[in-house]
Amino acid sequence: MRPQTEAELAGILRDGSEAFHIRGGGSRAVGVTGAAQVLETGGMSGISLYEPGALTLVARAGTPLTEIETALAAEGQRLAFEPMDHRGLLGTTGEPTIGGVVAANVSGPRRVQAGACRDFLLGVRFVDGSGQVVKNGGRVMKNVTGYDLVKLMCGSWGTLGVLTEVSLKVLPIPEASASVLIGGLNEAEAIEVMSRALTSPYEVSGAAHAPEGPDGVPSTLLRLEGFAGSVAYRAERLQEMFGSLTLRVETEADRVAALWRWVRDVEMMQGTGGDVWKFSVRPGTAPALVAQLRAAHPVRHVLYDWGGGLIWVECDPGTDLRPPNLQGHATLIRGSEATRLSLPVFQPEPPAIAALTQGIRARFDPRGMLNPGIMA
Description:
Layout: H1 6-15, E1 20-23, E2 37-40, E3 47-51, E4 56-60, H2 65-74, E5 77-78, H3 87-90, H4 98-103, E6 121-127, E7 133-137, H5 149-153, E8 162-169, E9 171-172, E10 176-183, H6 187-198, E11 204-210, E12 219-226, H7 228-241, E13 246-250, H8 253-264, E14 275-281, H9 286-296, E15 299-305, E16 310-315, E17 328-334, H10 337-342, H11 351-364
Parallel strand pairs: 1-2
Antiparallel strand pairs: 3-4, 4-8, 5-9, 6-7, 6-8, 10-12, 10-13, 11-12, 14-16, 14-17, 15-16
């Protein structure tokens, strides 16, 4: 099914008798979809309002992400939360949509400085599981009153409602960017360096570490963005701060962009055949967690992002990589259908939180029509 309007979508959900698998562009095959019939949002497409002077964009949920990025770039603006493109990692095709980005709260390396997708979401329109059209928020932050359904919908993976329109805050593209690359650090040293950089006054907008970097050797990456003079000054200060380490500064724009695309899209794990897990933890605990994982399982590749708060780990297919004492969250991002059916894809919730979650879902989708089982 591919509704062309919000009213048509509302009718489908109101009159439906079978569960639906909600799909935008089909580029994020995460979770368990089961035998539900596919409901595509791509028919509800197009930018309905763009005010560059107000840093505001409103688009229908099925709008391709590339269409939005092209329109923003023409005005020297961008989505500051840097949404990841999952297609290379998951081996999927299709075209990522803005509704899919919001539904999954997709946020890239810049999250450590600018914030996540949900931090730029001003308003939403969606249809709940009963076929009721719901609107919350507006075009400025102060318009969000009462229950903040804007934040609730972001990251709900289509289990509370089907997004039809989103309003987003956008930001200017910076004049210049640079990456400070530090070589030879072990993982604990890299976490310490990234923490020092992120807590410094030098406005680092990306901090990542790979035991096997783009050149096959341990690499720690720090990104700076802004006016050219400011970027140059801050790069010098970071060089002074870490002067005893082996480092270089990359200032060529295309090479800087390629480096952070490599981090954002987890290119080191693309086409490699293993399962991929994503861990969200306190940065200081990241090296110990990875050491624990390596001691228990064959770990193939590791990538630290968000200063160590996000860890991508590739392992042998079918491995339950989630440790029983995990202090954080683990999500199975890439795995076979059999693996996703046998293991919890998302982090199991404590009983009290699970009860709250079920209560919220029962309110918005009382018949259990929307993406049943995807977050089980």
